[in-house]
Amino acid sequence: MNIPLNLTKYLATTLLFTSTLSVATPITSVDFYSLNLGAMISGPVGPEVEVSLLNPDGNSLGDLRSSVSCPEGFATCIPADNDAGTIYTYVHTIIPGVDNPNDAPFPNPAIVLPFDDVAGFSLGFEAIGFNGIAGFGFSDASTAGVSFDIDLNIDNELVWATDSDGWDSGEEITFFWQTTQAPSGPAGVFNVSNNLDSASGRGPLPTPLAVSVSEPFGLGLFLMGLFAIKSRKFISLKSKFKPS
Q1: Does position 186 have pLDDT exceeding 60, yes or no?
Q2: Which residue, 1, 26, 119, 202, is the most exposed by fewest CB within 10 angstroms?
Q3: Is 37 helix (H, G, I), strand (E, B) or coil?
Q4: Per-domain residue ranges for the chain?
Q5: What is the DSSP letter of 79?
């Protein structure tokens, strides 16, 4: 029996969508402006890192400003002085189609392009130590005429996907997520995308979790777990928002 091409495409899309839903964990959104945060971590360039969101051609599609804060009540935020389990809030502010001056060593590209109908924002790395709390500035999103669904995908990456195509150039939106892991440096990759293009920029990357294995049996279980995770990632489809 010959299956019409359009039906084949429909079935393939349906399978992709249902597979994505089966492996993504939805996260309840929290308003960034409802948070009371403590001091920011001050790195080599200060408490905030400003970079460009670059497309594959090296042109800027927007601005990314990131910071990491300690909980409310911290007058200073020095991870080495903090107790294990301290919650750090990673904050990322994006302005599509606008590129403010960058911090060293991140140069500003010569070309800044308009970037409209932005489909979402995502981490390009595992959300190590994620405590289940993430969100965005509700008033920012309202001004842009959008909202976001947040998912933790099978790769343990957080994804903020828009519910419309209203997010356009010049409309600033702040995102956040929380983790028990302090930043290790600006090696994290952060992604934005629309139907025509995608871009990424650098920002704070969480320190890996320490793994302590004291017995051979425990080591065997640990290695089996790694094998299971890798096998699952090999056979599973990626999440619904994955910039090209």
Answers
A1: yes
A2: 1
A3: strand
A4: 9-235
A5: G
